[in-house]
Design brief:
It is built from 14 helices and no strands. With about 325 residues, it is mainly α.
Length: about 325
């Protein structure tokens, strides 16, 4: 299967579509009786109310699958356009769909699933910075995208850190570029603040930012059996890191910086969970885009077909097993 997706054969789109829903068999076999979905954070519902609660469980899961499929195509296009892999193909899309099927909460509609459209868009913006003479407008746009994502899912605000980390990686210091991203972010929330003011609720506006002051948890209650499916994923990421290290100084400088940027994005996505008091496991869908790039890099460069094909099959069977049990 990996070898098939290494090429840009259009047939792979049909195979990817089938694979997307194959990875969702477990939830279709035992659909929950009720699936609630809130598109916006409570502080954004003043602006607009969208009745997504009306989705049936079947409609919820079907729409989530279609969203993942289209996100995988967009993600694949971004990775190929920026030549992050040795040759263009549909491996990024395949690994995106696989990673987006790891846990049962990943298979339903959630705010983070919607935010992944924005995260892929931001990735594309950041990867253009090294090729642009002036990054002011790119950073401004990225700041606005992060603000929109924050209206949907508050932990998305932590992506603001990526604005400056990306500039550190790609460009020499220019205060306009460093400020423009923050200005873009504040532009959106200026209008939110105005709306609060018009509704005599300005005193409540500051409460939006209170989660940023949450203490990072010092102890975690983890049921390790729920995360055994990550064992083959971690193995693949270790192999990918070793492969990347081996080729690091033989790669283009832009490719090196791109993978460094994606590594930081992955770490920030993981750590941002502390800003959400009612944390849900679907938060880690934000790790899928940067993580899928690393997995695709390994399978793009792996040489022993029997090994990498077997490793991918083990991952798929592990996901299916833990979804069904």
């Amino acid at each position: 299967m990996i070898n098939q997706f290494r090429s840009l054969n259009p047939v792979n789109l049909l195979l990817l579509f089938a694979f997307t829903f194959f990875m969702r068999m477990a939830i279709f076999s035992d659909l929950p009786t009720d699936l609630q979905f809130e598109l916006l954070e409570s502080y954004a519902k003043f602006l607009i109310a969208i009745p997504f609660k009306s989705f049936s469980p079947t409609g919820n899961v079907l729409l989530a699958g279609l969203i993942v499929f289209f996100q995988a195509i967009l993600f694949n296009r971004v990775i190929n356009n920026h030549t992050l892999l040795s040759k263009p193909g549909y491996l990024p899309a395949l690994l995106y769909v696989t990673a987006a099927s790891l846990f049962m909460p990943f298979l339903i509609l959630s705010p983070t699933l919607i935010c992944n459209f924005l995260l892929i868009w931001i990735m594309d913006k950041f990867l253009k910075i090294g090729k642009s003479a002036n990054a002011v407008m790119i950073m401004f746009d990225a700041g606005m995208i992060i603000a929109i994502g924050t209206l949907i899912y508050f932990p998305f605000i932590v992506m603001l850190i990526m604005l400056w980390l990306t500039l550190l990686l790609y460009r020499s210091f220019n205060w306009r570029e460093w400020v423009s991203g923050l200005v873009g972010f504040l532009t959106i929330f200026f209008f939110v603040g105005v709306y609060y003011y018009w509704n005599d609720s300005l005193s409540q506006f500051y409460k939006i930012w209170l989660p940023l002051g949450n203490k990072f948890p010092s102890a975690f209650k983890i049921n390790y059996n729920d995360y055994l499916v990550l064992v083959p994923v971690i193995l693949m990421m270790v192999l990918a890191s070793l492969q990347l290290r081996e080729n690091f100084f033989r790669s283009f400088i832009s490719t090196r910086k791109a993978f460094q940027m994606l590594f930081f994005m992955f770490i920030i996505s993981v750590l941002s969970f502390y800003t959400k008091s009612d944390f849900r496991i679907y938060h880690f869908l934000m790790c899928v885009p940067p993580g899928a790039v690393l997995l695709a890099y390994y399978f793009s460069n792996a040489r022993k077909r029997w090994f990498y094909e077997s490793l991918f099959l083990i991952l798929v069977f592990a996901i299916q097993y833990f979804l069904f049990v």
